[in-house]
Amino acid sequence: MLALLKKELKTYFLTPTGWIFLAVFLLVSGLIYTLQLVFAQSPDYAGYLSGLLFLFLLVVPLLTMRIFTDEKRFRTDQLLLTGPARLWDIVLGKFLAALAVFLIAAAVTFIYPILLSFHGRLDWPVIIGTYAGFILIGSAFIAVGVFVSQAVEGVVGAAILTFCALIVTFFIDFLRPYMPATEFAGLVWVALLAGIALARLYSAGRNWAVTAIVAAAFAAALAVLWFVSRGLFAGLIGETLSWISLTNRFRPFAMGILSLDAVLYYLSFSAFFLFLTVQSLEKQRWS
Hints:
Number of strands: 0
Number of domains: 2
Oligomer: single chain
Number of helices: 15
Largest sheet: none
Order of helices and strands: HHHHHHHHHHHHHHH
Shape: flat
Radius of gyration: 22 Å
Strand content: under 5%
Distance between the termini: 24 Å
């Protein structure tokens, strides 16, 4: 894994990808810093970092779009998949390399609060907590980008699909208040999620019998819940969207609160998408 990590880091800085990412990130973050804090004479650095989350929509696709698409482009993907390296080592090496470039950019921005500290007193625990959340949510977005990169053929397609996936995470909080809260809507929502899971189950094994048995068992359990305690379905769509929202869990960090629940969520979210990436590569290896 370390050898692949070093190789990927060299690739970032021997090609325009890493430099373009750093240039866009630091240019836009510097402009926002100047307008929001310097010109406005505001010490709210935590608010500044929270505002930078929207910058991820632009920079994360730039950072991750070539991770696996270049392997397919130069036809080295089969060599990589059939080599002695474990798939987890491959995925983690590429993920950690992208994360390292992101951490370099985040470290450069730490100059800004140091400069501000010469002109006023800053709440350093809040700033450190916000940086912790900033890095955690950044790692989660990078994990999404890694997964998309191995699922798409072209670089442009990987960048666009990653952008779309990330923008969904931002709009979840805006959509949640407008979601229907009726019991029937919650039932339909659960059935829809179950349908997606069953489709995934069938695609993994191509076994109609197993899929049908699982579907029947789930339908029976759902029917029992509906007749026994249908109140559980009220507002279920909004609660589900709130649970999967990445930006919603960032808020405690912006207040200087190191939420263990949010930390575990971000780490689990990143691990889940890396796991999906490994499973997809495993399927490609044997296909």
